[in-house]
Design brief:
Blueprint (H helix, E strand, L loop, with lengths): L7 E5 L6 H14 L4 E5 L5 H15 L5 H25 L3 E5 L2 H11 L4 H11 L7 E6 L2 H9 L12 H17 L6 E5 L4 H17 L2
Parallel strand pairs: 1-3, 1-4, 2-3, 4-5
Helix pairs in contact: 1-8, 2-3, 3-4, 3-5, 4-5, 4-7
Bound molecules: thymidine-5'-diphosphate.
Thymidine-5'-diphosphate binds next to helix 4.
Length: 214
């Protein structure tokens, strides 16, 4: 019997946008509908990529790496993650929900850090081959909400330590990507403001649309 391929859905947004919470709720929602779901994150998700994650953060923290170097390492981590985890799961009919993907490289290393967007797009085409996301759900929150929600966190990554300017660039970058359907992807912009339940209801509505339209 031919196994139907799982869907590959990316959750995007700045720190404090609620991705991590909403991805777990989305998993429950889809599992209640009888679907198989795997949640993962980037950079990381598998052992080798988690090691690259630590390396990127350490180099970034010490200002030893610019946007191109970061880009190469993020894609190296991504390549390993896609081939050892994501592609096999999709082939088995498992739906994969990920907290970030190459779309984050475009926003962070491209829009916010001034890296070359064409290069990022070109590498994405190569690395993402065979695992093109079916949808990107962008959780949109204001700068204020991001700052407020992150104030409660203790384990901020080096990108989270950047100032308000950087945050503004990220948010503007995401909006532009939604408008342009960056990467030829299907983007859904979801209002991430309000309570967990309110945002969850909005995300569920989008998931319904993604799974109904096939
Ligand atoms: P994480 O602690 O998972 O952050 P968040 O909760 O904000 O998702 O750390 C991931 C950080 O790495 C995040 O600040 C965004 C950054 N990042 C990039 O700069 N480029 C990338 O390609 C990816 C995947 C993440």
């Amino acid at each position: 019997m031919n196994q139907e391929r799982g869907k590959f859905i990316v959750f995007e947004g700045v720190g404090g946008s609620g991705k991590t919470t909403q991805i777990e709720l989305a998993k429950k929602f889809l599992e209640e509908k009888g679907l198989k779901v795997l949640t993962t994150r980037e950079p990381g998700g598998v052992e080798a990529s988690e090691k690259i994650r630590e390396l990127i953060f350490a180099l970034r923290d010490k200002n030893l790496i610019g946007p191109e170097g970061q880009m190469v390492l993020f894609f190296a981590a991504r390549y390993l993650w896609l081939n050892s985890l994501v592609k096999p799961a999709l082939a088995e009919g498992i739906n994969v929900l990920t907290d970030r993907a190459h779309t984050s490289t475009a926003t962070y290393q491209g829009f916010a850090e001034g890296g070359n967007m064409e290069q990022i797009l070109a590498i994405s085409e190569v690395v993402m081959e065979g695992a093109r996301p079916d949808a990107v759900i962008f959780l949109e929150v204001s700068e204020e909400t991001s700052i407020k929600r992150r104030a409660a966190e203790t384990n901020g990554d080096p990108f989270d330590k950047q100032g308000r300017d950087y945050l503004g660039k990220l948010i503007a970058g995401y909006r532009k990507m939604v408008q342009e359907s960056w990467g030829g992807l299907k983007w859904y912009m979801v209002n991430g403001e309000g309570t967990v339940e309110e945002v969850q209801a909005r995300v569920s509505e989008v998931l319904r649309r993604i799974f109904e339209t096939g």
